[in-house]
Amino acid sequence: MFFKLFGLEDGEKTKLSKKNLSILFAVSEVNGLAKSGGLADFAKSLTESLVKLGQDVRLVLPDYRKIVDNFNREVVLSTRLEHWPHTAYSVAKLSMQGVPIYCIRCSKYFDRSDMYEENNEAYTDNGERFAFFSAACLDILPKLAFCPNIVHANDWQTGFVAYFLKKRYAETEYFQSMRCVISIHNAAFKGMFTYEELQYLPEFRLRCVPEAEISSTHVTMLKAGIVCADKINAVSPTYAEELKTELGSHGMQNEFRSRSKDFIGILNGCDYSVWNPEIDKYLPKNYRATYQSMSFGKKVCKQALQCEMGLPVKNVAMYGMVCRLTNQKGLHYLLPILDNFLEFDVQLVIIGVGDPFWVDQLRTISTLHCTKFAFLEIYDDRLAHLIEAGSDFFLMPSEFEPCGLNQMYSMAYGTLPIVRGVGGLKDSVKNYDSDSIEATGFVFDKPSSEALLVTISRSLILYIQNPKEIDRLKLNAMKQRFFWSDSARKYIAMYRSALSESA
Ligand SMILES: Nc1ncnc2c1ncn2[C@@H]1O[C@H](COP(=O)(O)OP(=O)(O)O[C@H]2O[C@H](CO)[C@@H](O)[C@H](O)[C@H]2O)[C@@H](O)[C@H]1O
Question: What's the rounded mean pLDDT across residues 121-146?
């Protein structure tokens, strides 16, 4: 079926399937080393799944200061980038769960407190930093004698990988059989810079790079990736469709539409070795998908969550939310109705870091409703797991959501997601109002606070009036499976189609 998706015939499928692929996976964060959000989960889980399916995958990321040095890292290369006058760099190699990882070590760019920003201000030289990283991703290949079939770029930070492969290395034999794919995790972040900021790149000195240009003064790294990659995917089928529309494309509908033949959606998976209430080391009580185990386990976890967040320990509907505090996550739908919502007999827990505008408001409202609403400005893995387990409902009223992972994590923990029907949320949550038998959560469509309030109220009424039905839905949700191995197979099909079409 996946081969059909890309128009390959069965004969070709057999021929191509015989050989495992080698893949360089270029990404700006990976869970376990450096994480700011879902991109890091994606990088770790997909590369591990590809390795389990027999592919030779090597990951490359910047060697940030925050990467803790408890791996046995070996420096395998010390070199410098041609055309990049002052920047010597080295490559430290480590291995995580069977995936070799090359860390690009360049103190000028990456030995800083954080990855992209400090005190909510993006680093002013991010263009230079990630242009350098993208160039280094390819520069290391002949020097390390690794000649992958596929270079897999992710989001704007590695958009120039595709550009360099297509342009800078077009005539270089070593690179000629390599093909590039790019995954779009969030097209709202485009990596927009002036030509001025990219003057280290000889190609940009004449200020005429149509592949990346969006005006006479500015370029975006994401556009370069979309224009130059052989294949493109968004992280859910619905987001792939949204990206071709004016409303959902973050202003890039023309670029996405012009590549529609090479553009598909592949839904992310859920890593059940990490997000599984049966084995989760962060929970005070583990549980599985049977009525007794789930209701007792979730009750203990709810009490632990209430204690930890300073809320009264009582049997009450618990709503949870864990996210980066940005406009994307729909806080502008939630905040106007919070006072109303908190008049009900409910509790709400939110943790997140991000925009001070949202932090201040959440803090103020939580002080006013301190017996019902706890907010912590914190990034904390353990608490994220406890919220998933101890809540009855998980809020994701996103403005847009390329895929979303927390709704999948919620379902695994028997916590019903309340989501807006966009992107991957639409593709992964079955709405109670559309199919009450198969339902795994609640979905609303209208981008409004009222629509969210109606849906939350509906979930609460069901919780109070028909707790057995809620438990049935929770068990439904726990039995859902979004395997990374399924996603990985679709990526392999995309890689093969990139290779076969250009062969
Ligand atoms: N305060 C906190 N404490 C602990 N953990 C926290 C946290 N805030 C966030 N996280 C964690 O960060 C991850 C967030 O993942 P998401 O996919 O929901 O969103 P994100 O928008 O970052 O990712 C983008 O990329 C991914 C991957 O493709 C897409 O699914 C998504 O739609 C797209 O926006 C989860 O693992 C979550 O638990």
Answer: 97
